[in-house]
Amino acid sequence: MKSTADYLSTQQEAARTALALIQRQGETTAAALWALVGSSWQCLATLGAADSLPSAQALSAGRLPGPDGAALPLVLHGDTLGWLVWRGRIADTADAVLALLAGHLHSASLHSAQSQSRVMNETLLEISQLPGECNTLDEMLPKLHRLLMRLMDASNFYIALFDEQGGQLYYPFYADQQDPAPPSPEAVFSKEQTTRSLTAWLMRMGKPLVLTRQRLLEVCQQEQLVLEGPLPELWMGVPLTNVSNGVIGAAVLQFYANQAPCTSAEQALFLFVTRHIAYALDRMLYRSQLERQVWLRTCELEGVNARLRSEISDRQRAERFQDVLFRIADLSNTSLSLEAFLAGVHRLLMELVAGRNCQVALYDMNSDMLSFPYCADDFQQVSQTRRPGRGLVEQVLHSGRPLLLDRSPAQLNPTEESTAPPMCSWLGVPLYCGHELLGVLSVHSYQNDVIYSYRDQEVLEFVANNIGTALARVRAMHDLQNAYAELEERVRERTSELDAVNAQLEFDSLHDPLTKLPNRNYFAKTLRRAWDSYLSGNGARFSVIFIDLDRFKLVNDTLGHLAGDHLLFEAGARIRSCLRHYDFLARLGGDEFAILLFGTETLDGCEMIARRIVSEFERPVILAGREVFSTASVGMVLADRDHYQKAEELLRDADHAMYCTKQQGRQGYTVFNHQLRINQADQLALESELRRALDAEDQLQPYFQPFIDARSGELVGFESLVRWRHPQRGLISPALFLPVAEESGLITRVDRYMINAACRQLRQWLDAGLVGSNIALHLNLSSANFHDPELVSWVRGIIEGYQLPAAILHLEITESALIDVPEIAATVMHALHQLGVKLALDDFGTGYSALSYLHRYRFDVLKIDQSFVFDLDRKEESVAIVRAILALAQALGLDVVAEGVETAAQLSRLQEMGCAKLQGYYFATPSPAETIDWERLARFVQEFRRAA
Ligand code: C2E
Ligand code: CA
Ligand code: CA
Question: What is the Å distance from ligand 2's center to 948 Cα?
Answer without folding.
Answer: 29
